[in-house]
Amino acid sequence: MMDKIYIWNGKKKIKLLNNINETVKKLCNINDHLYLLTSTNKFYHGNIEIVEDEEQVTFQLSDAFRPQDIDCKADTLYIVDQNGKVLSYNEDLEFQSEITLVEDARTCFHGHTASRFKMKVSKISVGEYGGLFITENGQLWGSGNMHQIGINSTTPKKVTFFDNRYVYACNVGNDFAIVIVSKQLLNDDTDSDDCEEDVFISSCPQCLSTSQLTSPISQYSLSDNCPLGLPIPVSYDIETTSTSSKNDSISSNETKKCNGDSNEESKVEKNIIFRNTEAAKEFLTRQFSWMSSAGEEYLVECTEKPTRIIKENVSSMANLVYEGVKTVGDKVVTLSRHVSGSSDNNDVLESLEEMQLPRVTSKDEFMWSLSQCTEEKDMSEQGIHEKCNNIIKAGCNYINCEVWTWGNIVHGQLGKTALFNGIGDIIKRERPMIITKLSNIGALKVSVQSYHAGILTLDGRAFLWGKNDQNQVTVDCAVDQSSPRLFSTESGERIKDITCCDSHTWLLTTSNVTKYIGKHANQKIVDVHMQERNEKTNSDMQDDPHLDDKIANYLISCKQYSLLNHVADCNSFVMKNLVVEQKALEDMLTVQSNLIKPLMKKNIATGDDSLYDQLCREYIDLLHFTAANVKSLIDFTNNVLPESDIIMTKYVEEHIRVYRIYLNTLHNVISLGGCSTIAKYLDIPVCLYKLVDVQKRDKKGDEIVTSRLLAHPLDRLSFYENFVHFFVKNTPKVRHDVMSKWTLFIEEQKNKKQETIQTKEFWLNSGKVIEHLKTPSRRLLRESHKFPLFLQNGSRFSTHWFILLTDIFIHMNGSTCNMHDLRTMWVEPQQDSANNQYQISLKMPEDTLDLYANEPEQKIEWFHALQNAIKSSLGKVSLHQPPEERNAEYTFTKNGYYKDAKYNGRWKCGKMHGEGKLEWPDGRVYTGQFQQNQMHGRGRLDEPNKGVYKGQWKDNLQNGFGIFNYSSGDVYKGCFKDGLPNGHGCLRQGHFMAQNASIYIGDWLFGNKSGYGVMDEITIGEKYLGNWSDNKKHGNGTIVTSDGIYYEGVFNQDVLMGHGIMILDDGTHYEGDFKGTGVLSGKGVLTLKSGHILEGSLTGSWSEGIKISNGVLSLPKFDHVDDSPKAFGTYCTPVDQKWKGLFRHYHQLLGVQDNTTKNNVKLPDTHRVWQNVAVIISNKHFGSNSKNCKNLEKSMNNLDMIPDFGKDGINMKTYMEMRNYLHKAFDCPRHPLGSLLNDLTAAYTAAYGSRAHALLLPHAVRELHFVTQRLYDIVRLLFPALPQYGKEIILDEKDELSGTVSCQILLYPIILPRVHSTLFNLYTLRNKFKDAMYWKRLLEWNKQPDYTLMAFLHVDQKFIKGYADGIPLSPGNTKRDLMFIEAVETLQSLITTFSPMEKLCVIKQTFKKMSECVREQLGENYKWNMDDLFPLFQYVVVRARILQLGSILEFVEDFMEPSLESGELGIMFTTLKAVYCLITQEKVSGN
Asked: Following DSSP, what letter does each residue of 1332-1364 receive, concatenated?
């Protein structure tokens, strides 16, 4: 069986009598007693014995120990257990003591002292010089005599020098020490070296009171639960944070065992609080990001769609809290840190008190945490971007490490630069010193023994320095080396590991050769051990890897002893490529320090100086990504990672993205001749010349070196392709699509490289005519000097040069440059002419170029080049050809309507078509639809100093329905034609009670009021209802004033002229000639309120007095005087002339002629009408706001579906379906029926709502009847099975209402509720005096008890309660409202209904309730007679106390179906009318 480990004493191999089947990560010894710690934290020990001159050892496993780390000093063994405690033992493993790292007590400003804490340790290194301890949060502690770091004590103390740094590794020699650290910033702007932190003590009342006043921390921030009450996970992946702290992973509270003793630890609630606000922001983002993976299944039980909701708000929430953390101040942060409780990194010594946990970064948490992301996030562009940044930041952590030393410098141990002639620097230092040569180059491992040290870097280089008396540092000489010296290796070989012993050094190469230098090597490099080849085969790689043999170090040592871990060798192909990648990383580090960093410091005075800064930043990003890739390859070879987690195989999209970003910038620099510019500003050192093997050093050579070094990443793409191909072929876990991605990317970069070279040459030779077009991202694709192309019908004496760039097409006509954006160019091949002209037509928004080539191949090449360039500029490379319709931006230049206008939106074949935005220099902005280069469809136009129009457009003018909000505050809402109001519309001018405030609703013709309309002039208190012409009252009309005067007559040019009538509010009226409103002029008859009639010639203004001539006064002939003249209603506008524009508009929408509503005209195609209805609904749906889509779909109720009923026959089922459909249609504003009803309601309310007059009631009733008829005619266009207007179909003779189909029964329940308030107000004005008499009697009569009232109304006593039982009520009984209660309550619901049919149903139900009550008292066989019924019904009416009953009765009478008058409902209604008349004529008193 092959040995797993090999051990040497110096150069002599020690024989192992038993094998340890796992790798060893730590070796130490006390004399000849060896102690081993394995990768699984198992502890072995054994004594070396000499048998027959051969050293041999047997190791025993000690189950009592499971240490994290071990080390020895003199006769003491130090162990770091799983709880972070440092315990000391003697050689025989007998416990001696515990070494505690106690944080010094701190005192607040108020004098209170905080408790002390015991720190948890993760790593330890001890030696003759002292001991160093690394805590779990990256702090460095020390003991011994190390005055340079302020340590002079046997008790470990914190090394404050490294407070702002995270310590990764440490090592102690005989008289010096080395650490590897990374710098951490604890504040946003400055280091914390000079920052005094406020100390918070929880036991201090002043600290508590101060912090409570300033802390914004809620109860949620003090717990491990989110605001939803769910537990927050304590592990985070690198997807959501750029740096990861070792404190981010909170330890378990479970008890751990050491030395067989069980120590119970109390569970302490944990919180991570950062002093740095950026760290707080990252922490919050991490806390919220757990929703993306494991938390999603749990949270879905608590809330709907949690991932989407929380993911959308993670960033904003983190930013919000981040701003809060920033502004609150240091005291709040300190409070938060202390209130959160003790960290698990510490044990409380006195009382529970929190310590400061600085922001730290761990290099080793990257690979496995990066892989814990969701597939959903992986595939998103944002996810790829975030992972790129995280990989780059991890690589930055690997590279940017500092190496610090302190101690004795006699042998050059501190690694400072040598002075001259090899003499070492022996100047003593009082503080730790940084080794500049080894910092920021990716220090991976430090090894120290006795008086010399070594460093292994990420790129596989080994540096040695210190005492060299035995050639343990270099074999070139025996002089001590004070400067780190690179260990030379053969070509194609790198150092895999290094370890230093007392007087020799071991190195392991990537060829698995163990090299030895130092004592007994005779100043040579000796190959001591060549590991036997046990290479992983391809089949091995296909199996699941066993990662039990994770190798932290191949070589480890302690004093004169050294150990080599042996594992199966990695595949030679992988190792070879690792070496190549490490060599590339070394070269990139050289380029960074000698080219990139100097370039970043230079201020290049060009117009594209930011381009060079961008190039530098992206090169460094590429360097850091390469470092992360190298680290993943090293971890793979060490069995830490499986092959599927190697950066270049798992994160292919991210790898390609980083390269694409850098190479795109590089191509931009090269295309502008940037390499020569860089060479002008920088002196290229010799080391860079060696990298590219250029001999001649001059400015031309500098340019060549610069170009080759910057383009070196491009040359390495084939290397990655081969590497990925190997894994795709041999490993099923690697995605098989990665190969095609790399192939496509390489092909893409080859083409871009060729384009870049062509572009560079083009700009150099094109002259200054088009130099202003030179931009970094612009490339030359084709030009007509090299590939001939000519202008069709061009002049013989003109020269034309056509240049195709990546984003524009240039036509050089002599010295005139015409540019055309490729996004607004369409290419059309034309039919070839007979004279060998192979034509191509280019269409642009304002130009058309007809071009031709002399050869068909040239035409095809130009055609495809143009098509591909257009696709690329549009980002549609995958399409077969450029889309005809596309989004683009264009500025018009030629004279015309669009001169200098900027358009951004949809195009089709060179014309604006679809949604877009058009902006003129004068401030006009149009946003909406276009068609064939015209504003057409829905749109909005903002015009400065004029207003805003929103509505329909056609041919660049307002056409159709729209709303114009004028800058003056006026608003027009209605129809337009050719940019002017035309048809039905409403104009509101001014504000309420402002000067010239008015409202006009009616017909318009080319911007003028023309036709029927209603004008309410608010300021003068006058409303006009009538005809208009050219913005003036002209024709029949009616005027109502605020004084209650009613005019009716013929108007001419805004003046009431000729015959007309005037009615005053007291009943006085005049009929005769007028010369203006209120101005009498000519013959007429004046009827006074008293009934006297004055007939003659009357002239003058009514308000100032009139002159009467040839007059005759007549005495009243009748007691009753009519309130209105006989000619009342004859001079107003006929109802069939009202709202013609409104109905005409909706007929046009439905696609029918206005005269089709007449009964003698054939109805149009019903199916066509329904199609138009569906189009109208869908257009309004398409133009609606997306926020209202849900409400819209809810309101539609499937109205956009064409029904299949109501076309032929009609029955009860189809009638109910039609009625339900109509109810929904009239309620939906997007249905043409609903929109029409809304417009009619607005017009009707404007005419009869405000400034109501009782004399307008007859007009309102007639108009409503006519509107109902017009609406019904439109309904019949949809449902031709309905009866004609004025006719009815009886479906059920038993039900007068539901079983009868007619216009009134179908539409009144829909129309009347809309206008009921307006209409009923007119009824109340008309019946004001009569209803007042009625109400006065009701109030008086209802004061009487039931017996008295029924006796007064002559109700038969048999209907009085109690009479049937033989107990008649006495006249003295004072009880009220006890009889026929249900009938009274039913009749009271009369005022809650709006249509005549509903009110008739209420009356019928009242009689039914009365009958039920009577039959209950007198028996089921009782039959009504009118003598009994009428008085009793009168009693019910009186007790019902219905307001304005006379108005209700007149309303029902005006709108009741004629067929119902002679039926049961008609009789009941007549009875109610009779009761009302009787009440009004009775005396008031009921006594």
From this structure: HHHHHHHHHHTTS-HHHHHHHTT--GGGSTTTT
List the one residue out of 1134, 1071, 1083, 1080 whose CA is nearest residue 1110. Answer: 1083
In angstroms, rounded to a whole number, what is the distance separating the alpha carbons of residues 1221 and 1198? 9
Report which secondary-structure segment, H or E, holds 1437.
Answer: helix 1426-1440
With CA atoms as reference, report the closest residue to 1383 among 1351, 1421, 1429: 1429
Residue 641 CA to residue 632 CA, distance in Å, equals 7
Residue 943 is classified by DSSP as E
This prediction has a pTM of 0.70
State the pairing for strand pair 998-1005/1008-1017.
Answer: antiparallel
Contacts of 368 (CB under 8 A, 6+ apart): 641, 645
> Could you give the CA distance from residue 1352 to residue 695 in angstroms, rounded to a whole number?
134
- 652: closest CA among 545, 740, 541? 740
- Is residue 242's pLDDT more than 60? no
pLDDT tens digits for 1288-1320?
888 876 665 667 888 988 999 999 999 999 999
CA distance 221 to 332: 12
How is 147-210 classified by DSSP, letter by letter? GGGTEEEEEEEE-GGGTTEEEEEEEE-SSEEEEEEEE--SSSSS-STTPPPPP--TT-HHHHHH
Instruction: Give the burial class of 585: count Cβ atoms within 10 A of its Cβ; 0-12 exposed, 13-18 middle, 19 or more buried.
Output: buried
The C-alpha atoms of residue 231 and residue 223 are separated, in whole angstroms, by 9
User: Which uninterrupted H or E stretch holds 1236?
Assistant: helix 1232-1248
∠ CA 440-446-447 to the nearest 5 degrees? 155
pLDDT tens per residue across span 441-483: 999 999 999 999 999 999 999 999 999 999 999 999 989 998 9
Question: Token digits for 408?
Answer: 């004795």
Query: What's the token pair of residue 733?
Result: 């876990």
CA torsion through residues 544, 546, 551, 554, sign: negative
Structure tokens at 305: 């769609």
Question: What does DSSP assign to residue 1134?
Answer: P
Residue 1105: partners with Cβ closer than 8 Å, 6 or more residues away: none
Is the pLDDT at 320 greater than 50? The verdict is no
When computed from its CA atoms, the radius of gyration of the chain, rounded to whole angstroms, is 50
Q: Is the dihedral of CA 893, 896, 898, 900 positive or negative?
A: positive
Specify the 3-state DSSP secondary structure of 508.
strand
Q: Are 953 and 976 in contact (CB under 8 A)?
A: no
3-state DSSP call for residue 1224?
helix
Taking alpha carbons only, the member of 974, 926, 980, 932 closest to residue 958 is 980
Q: Which two tokens stand for residue 286?
A: 């991490």
Of 96-100, 517-521, 834-838, 1226-1230, the poorest mean pLDDT is in 834-838
Question: Within a 10 A sphere around the Cβ of 409, how many other Cβ atoms?
Answer: 22
| pLDDT one-digit tens code per residue, 159-173 | 999 988 999 999 999
What share of the chain has pLDDT > 90, as a percent?
50
Instruction: Report the distance separating Cα 1244 and Cα 1246, nearest Å.
Output: 5
Q: How many CA atoms lie within 13 A of 108 on its CB side?
A: 22
Pairing of strands 256-258, 60-61: unpaired
**What is the rounded CA–CA span in Å between residue 42 and residue 293?**
34
C-alpha span between 1212 and 56 (Å, rounded): 109
pLDDT tens, position by position, 531-588: 554 555 444 444 444 344 566 678 999 999 999 988 666 678 888 889 999 999 999 9
CB 578 within 8 A of CB 15: no
State residue 939's pLDDT score.
95
- Tokens representing 1073 are 């000639």
Each residue's pLDDT tens digit, 381-400:
888 899 999 999 999 999 99
Helix (H) or strand (E) holding 495: strand 495-500
* CA–CA dist 733, 544 (Å, integer): 9
